[in-house]
């Protein structure tokens, strides 16, 4: 029998909240069931297994993540858009650590293709970078640079990895400023005769 009041949406939301509390990798069906005061079997009416639950949390988190970023960059362009994008990224990563960790989960490409959150992420990132006039393959390279920089900075900050007395916020602002400078002066792969041979 399905526990009254339990829905798939409520189960996934609770799992996301649990991830923020204990870490995405520690979310289990049993831990979630305990939080609801039900047996594990009650949750299998709403999710197929742990992988399905984690995938659903990842999709939920991706939607919340891009909603925050899109709201921050709306009406902005160039450096203003980059700063807003970066600050929204960092805020989400630090305020919602379990959800953020879930966004790093590798999703089945077929599932990702059906996700509006993933499409909006691509569109929003592309729109933010449009002012820099990058074309492929430079655009993909720039996206990878931004993602790895933001992710690495947030991961180090969250784990207390910055031990120097230098203010972390100031370093963040200068890092984003440096990324803006680099994007404005991007060394084009095509102009250097790069090929894929």
Description:
With 197 residues, this protein is mainly alpha-helical. It has helices at residues 8-22, 29-36, 40-43, 50-73, 78-95, 97-103, 109-113, 116-129, 138-158, 168-184. Helix 4 (50-73) packs antiparallel against helix 5, helix 4 crosses helix 6 (97-103) and helix 9 (138-158) runs antiparallel to helix 10. The radius of gyration is 20 Å and the shape is globular. The N and C termini lie far apart (60 Å). The relative contact order is 0.11.
Task: Report how far apart the termini are.
Answer: 60 Å
Strand content: under 5%
Rounded mean pLDDT is: 94
Strands, count: 0
The H-and-E topology, N to C, reads as: HHHHHHHHHH
Which secondary-structure class do the elements indicate? mainly alpha
| Computed CA radius of gyration, to the nearest angstrom | 20 Å
- In percent, how helical is the residue content? 55-70%
Segments where pLDDT lies below 50 for 5+ residues?
none
Broad shape: globular
Quickly count the helices: 10
Note the main sheet. none
């Amino acid at each position: 029998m399905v526990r009254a009041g339990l829905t798939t949406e409520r189960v996934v939301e609770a799992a996301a909240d649990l991830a923020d509390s204990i870490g995405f990798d520690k979310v289990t069906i049993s831990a979630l069931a305990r939080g609801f005061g039900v047996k594990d079997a009650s949750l299998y009416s709403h999710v197929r297994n742990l992988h399905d639950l984690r995938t659903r949390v990842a999709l939920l988190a991706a939607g919340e993540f891009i909603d925050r970023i899109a709201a921050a960059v709306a009406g902005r362009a160039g450096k203003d858009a980059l700063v807003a994008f970066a600050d929204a990224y960092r805020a989400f990563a630090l305020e919602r650590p379990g959800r953020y960790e879930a966004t790093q989960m590798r999703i089945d490409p077929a599932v990702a293709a059906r996700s509006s959150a993933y499409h909006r992420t691509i569109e929003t990132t592309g729109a933010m970078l449009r002012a820099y006039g990058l074309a492929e393959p430079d655009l993909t390279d720039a996206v990878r640079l931004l993602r790895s920089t933001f992710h690495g900075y947030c991961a180090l900050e969250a784990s207390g990895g910055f031990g120097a007395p230098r203010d972390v916020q100031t370093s963040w602002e200068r890092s984003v400023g440096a990324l803006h400078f680099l994007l404005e002066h991007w060394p084009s792969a095509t102009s250097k005769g790069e090929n894929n041979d």
